[in-house]
Structure formats: structure tokens, C-alpha cells
Write a structure and sequence with these properties.
With 267 residues, the chain is of the alpha+beta class. Helices cover 22% and strands 25% of the residues.
């Protein structure tokens, strides 16, 4: 069954997650449940959980923690108590020793009682606020950078960012102000300037690793480029650190929580 853009935006999180759980929606979650916060996800064996939590604590802009489950617990009780992290995301990625081995639509067959789920804030949540402020921009999708993350135990790697081009400086300043209120959704940009300064040489080009990065025209003179930390950073860390086993969301296939974005914003 197909849904219009308006139908997707007006859905409540529980309704959307029900569609996902039944396999009726396996596409991206970018434009669903307007105003509700979305989350990136990482699932790890208990053995690695503390080190990853420390990694998030040391790198809060790409990895802001919304919720952490008990080992074996499938319900993210702080953000959606009736949800099931094994079935309620439209797409998953399974990593072994830093390699993607599967991209299933549920992870029931991979589930073990020692697994711990981490729900990390997503910039889709402050996008709603920026649209309400009548801002316009062009989003380029996620890019790996040369910015090193702070290591924690076996976790190390480089930050992934989401660049957005704003058409004038006033809009860019307003975007910084708005996103700064949403520290659980990556907060303020991590960089402002030319992409090459942080190791991005192919801005606007397609990359198969990031399925929602279409080819787009390069920035135009007078535009301001802002770069936000991205919740795909743990996937790069898994690859660079060769973590034995990790499950994540598939990029752009996020978990939709029961919390409104404004509930998590700084007043």
C-alpha cells in the first residue's frame, strides 16, 4: 500500500511502527510522523556496551544518547515503551569484524540475550523546527570526514557529518540557533566552511554506502555550508575498529520515538 506525503507526516509513531513491524513499510523514515523525534540505533554485545557508552559520552555531537536498554531487553522504555527494537525499524545493518554481512528488515534471527540497544538522537528531529522557522536549504546527505573521534576502549574512528547548504548567512545563523537547542539531536554544527578542510572531496556525489546520498549540484557562491554530526558515525567506528559484532539502523531508516522533538529541546 502506498501512502501520500501528508499521510506519512500525520501518522502517530505507534501507527508507523506497526506498519514497519508487519513489513508494510521498508522505505526510509525521513518524512514520517512530523514533529516526533527519530533515533539512530546501535546494538552491541554486553561485553562492548560500556566502551561504546564511553565512546558516545566522549563524542556527544555525532552520538547523543537518548536511551540504553538492559541486556536482552527489546523495549526502549524511555522513548517508546511498547516498541520492539528487533522489528520496528524499516531497515537494519549487521556488521561482523567491520564488514556489512546483511541488511535485513528485522533482526529477530540475530537476537541474543546479551545484546544492549543504544538509541541515539537524529537530526531529522530539529529539521522539523527549522522548517517551522521557514528556513530553506539543500541537504547533501552523510559524508565521512577527517575529523577524528575521541577513542574509548576498542572504539575509534572518524566522524560522519551531514552537510547542509543555506542560501544566505541569515538563514545559516538561524539554523545554528535552532539546532543548538536540540543537543540530544546532534546540537549545533561541528564545522562551518569548505568541505575540503575536513576531508570531504566529493561533495554532491553518490556513495553506495549511504543510500540517501543522491547526486546534487555543488555549493553556489554566497551559500553557507554547515556540517552537523551524524548518527552513522558508529558504523564507521565499527568498520575502523573491526568490532566483532554490531547491529545498526540502515542509513535513513530510523526509529521513530513517542517523544516530540520539542520535549527534548533546551528551553
Amino acid at each position: 500500500m502506498k501512502y501520500s506525503s501528508d499521510e506519512l507526516k500525520s501518522m502517530k509513531p505507534k501507527e508507523f511502527r506497526s506498519l514497519v513491524r508487519k513489513g508494510a513499510w521498508t522505505d526510509v523514515s525521513l518524512e514520517v510522523c512530523q514533529g516526533f523525534s527519530q533515533a539512530n540505533m546501535v546494538i552491541l554485545p554486553r561485553e562492548y556496551a560500556f566502551e561504546f557508552l564511553l565512546f558516545c559520552n566522549r563524542n556527544p555531537q555525532p552520538c547523543p544518547v537518548l536511551d540504553v536498554t538492559e541486556p536482552g531487553e527489546v523495549h526502549p522504555k524511555s522513548i517508546a515503551p511498547d516498541a520492539d527494537i528487533r522489528t520496528d525499524l524499516p531497515g537494519y545493518r549487521v556488521y561482523e569484524k567491520g564488514e556489512i554481512i546483511d541488511e535485513p528488515t528485522d533482526i529477530v534471527k540475530y537476537w541474543k540475550d546479551d545484546l544492549v540497544g543504544f538509541m541515539l538522537g537524529c537530526s531529522r528531529s530539529f529539521v522539523w523546527a527549522m522548517r517551522t522557522a521557514n528556513l530553506s536549504w539543500r541537504e547533501y546527505g552523510p559524508y565521512p570526514t577527517s575529523i577524528p573521534c575521541k577513542s574509548a576502549g576498542r572504539f575509534h574512528g572518524h566522524m560522519v557529518v551531514t552537510p547542509r547548504a543555506f542560501f544566505d548567512a541569515k538563514s545559516a545563523v538561524r539554523a545554528v540557533q535552532i539546532s543548538s537547542r536540540h543537543i540530544y539531536m546532534h546540537g549545533a554544527p561541528v564545522f562551518i566552511g569548505a568541505p575540503g578542510e575536513i576531508g570531504i572531496e566529493n561533495l554532491g556525489q553518490y556513495d553506495a554506502f549511504f543510500p540517501r546520498r543522491p547526486v546534487k549540484e555543488p555549493p553556489k557562491p554566497g551559500e553557507t555550508l554547515l556540517y552537523w554530526g551524524c548518527g552513522i558515525t558508529p558504523q564507521i567506528a565499527a568498520m575502523e575498529s573491526k568490532i566483532p559484532f554490531m547491529i545498526t539502523h540502515k542509513p535513513a531508516h530510523m526509529f521513530v520515538s513517542d517523544l516530540m522533538s520539542e520535549e527534548l529541546a533546551i528551553l
